[in-house]
């Protein structure tokens, strides 16, 4: 039987609808509008597209959207000043600094200068520590979106074997923490893993977050397993015309879909869920800042 396609685009729309409903409540009952600030340093065209679509969706769910575009040569001190102002701005409940930053800026220092309760990316060391110890935190958007789709598909994840390929701080590690939190038996694989194929073949759940186009072939997938493809790789697509490109994930979609029980496509899988979870985290942060009940089902 061919795999069920997990429609991240449709799922993200339902998450955004829940967010919009909660925003309306906050406005009507309390006169509060959640605000999200996105800080972009430099002119990376891919990042600009992503920032634009975040801004548009933020406004669509009724929230305030602020964008700070700083030039690529911005000094660390100037960037920290922008973040400090946002930390102290009562109308801003969520702050996202688009990564990667230009080389002359210390990413850890910059991220850790964001007020943890406004850190809607969940990258601040306080949030990382809270997640690791199972306490209430801001949960990184991409892993949170993956978790929502997995829970929706499986119901309970308890006891399932999960393999996360990739150990980055922004995807692989927090993904593994969330799966562990849902009582999966978790393996984290990376570039030094011996016999990755064998490791992946044991998994009921495979999350690929590698950054290598179509690296995971179908014959690594246990029949019926769930495959979550985090990868976003833009490749040249001369077959579509001169200078055209296409997006592919980190798994080889056709061969994996032939054996998997369920699979997320690229585009239209994890990506849209990431943005929806960013909006969800912003509403959650706003509720926490105001001592109000949080929306249900939008956090881990
Ligand atoms: N859909 C979305 O919303 C998002 C998508 N992404 C995409 O997800 C992918 C991963 O992103 P990110 O985590 O930031 O990437 P990083 O480059 O930070 O991490 C990649 C990880 O993959 C591991 N790796 C590299 N090569 C291999 C290999 N041959 N075999 C096994 N493991 C390998 C690396 O191992 P080691 O640590 O040993 O070097 C590393 O842990 C990218 O395609 C990115 O574009 C990222 C964020 C959000
Ligand atoms: N501080 C920070 N937080 C992030 O969460 C963050 C970041 N920096 N830097 C870059 C990565 C990447 N990322 C994506 C989110 C959505 C899509 C997305 O919506 N993708 C669409 C396709 C979009 C297209 O066509 O280009 C899809 O997969 O369907 C992609 C990539 C978040 N990131």
TrEMBL record:
NADP(+) binds at residues 166-168, 232. It comes from Roseobacter sinensis. Keywords: Amino-acid biosynthesis, Histidine biosynthesis, Hydrolase, Methionine biosynthesis, Multifunctional enzyme, NADP, One-carbon metabolism, Oxidoreductase, Purine biosynthesis. It catalyses: (6R)-5,10-methylene-5,6,7,8-tetrahydrofolate + NADP(+) = (6R)-5,10-methenyltetrahydrofolate + NADPH; (6R)-5,10-methenyltetrahydrofolate + H2O = (6R)-10-formyltetrahydrofolate + H(+). SUPFAM superfamilies: Aminoacid dehydrogenase-like, N-terminal domain, NAD(P)-binding Rossmann-fold domains. CDD domains: NAD_bind_m-THF_DH_Cyclohyd (cd01080). Catalyzes the oxidation of 5,10-methylenetetrahydrofolate to 5,10-methenyltetrahydrofolate and then the hydrolysis of 5,10-methenyltetrahydrofolate to 10-formyltetrahydrofolate. InterPro entries: Aminoacid_DH-like_N_sf, NAD(P)-bd_dom_sf, THF_DH/CycHdrlase, THF_DH/CycHdrlase_cat_dom, THF_DH/CycHdrlase_CS, THF_DH/CycHdrlase_NAD-bd_dom. Gene3D superfamilies: Leucine Dehydrogenase, chain A, domain 1, NAD(P)-binding Rossmann-like Domain. This is Bifunctional protein FolD. Residues 140-288 form the Tetrahydrofolate dehydrogenase/cyclohydrolase NAD(P)-binding domain. The keyword Transmembrane does not apply. Its EC number is 1.5.1.5, 3.5.4.9. Homodimer.
